[in-house]
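queue> pop job 88
queue> type: inverse folding (structure -> sequence)
queue> payload:
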């Protein structure tokens, strides 16, 4: 069973990087993303900003345990742009990321080998200019209890240093906690002595 419960991602968009080959200019960018809607918005913005470019090729990967990804050659020869960009996402082992390489054509054809090299290098430069961090994969739980049990619940949360993400403290209290994946199996037993308290995993 895979107990890997960390993943690497970037914290902020990278600075624009530039790679040149035979008068063609390739501008590389990386962006943190969590859904396809964000991907679409970023690409639309780049197309506005670089409206005179010839190609906006990209690759993205989203997810930690269930991975979704896509690469797009945007009119370049098949697999000469999107795939080399995606290859860099894999080799840097990052996820929740979009890399876009914007190409201004310089009048000289580079051939498929030249294109693969240019898109791969631009993606690599964008990643090298990104702040890559490691995060934990977390599982969320909800603890449901009556107000009178508040102190007991809070004591356990403090003792085990659990991360509260949301609380609704009314007559029937609910506290949401987020726990690192490899510790998730230990959570329910901690609360089991308090039989009046319900704890459920949120998937």
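queue> result:
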């Amino acid at each position: 069973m895979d107990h890997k419960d960390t993943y690497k991602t970037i914290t902020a968009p990278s600075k624009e990087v530039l790679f040149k080959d035979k008068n063609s200019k390739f501008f590389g960018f990386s962006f943190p993303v969590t859904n396809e809607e964000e991907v679409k918005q970023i690409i639309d913005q780049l197309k506005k900003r670089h409206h005179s470019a010839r190609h906006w090729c990209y690759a993205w990967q989203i997810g930690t345990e269930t991975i979704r990804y896509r690469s797009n050659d945007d009119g370049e020869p098949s697999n000469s742009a999107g795939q080399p960009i995606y290859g860099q996402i894999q080799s840097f082992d990052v996820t929740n990321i979009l890399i876009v390489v914007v190409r201004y054509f310089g009048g000289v054809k580079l051939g498929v080998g030249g294109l693969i090299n240019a898109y791969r290098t631009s993606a690599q430069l964008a990643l090298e200019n990104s702040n890559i961090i490691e995060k934990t994969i977390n599982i969320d739980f909800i603890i449901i209890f009556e107000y009178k049990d508040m102190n007991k619940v809070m004591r356990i949360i403090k003792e085990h240093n659990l991360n509260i993400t949301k609380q609704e403290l009314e007559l029937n209290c609910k506290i949401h906690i987020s726990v690192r994946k490899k510790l998730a199996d230990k959570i329910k037993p901690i609360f089991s002595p308090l039989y009046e308290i319900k704890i459920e995993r949120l998937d």
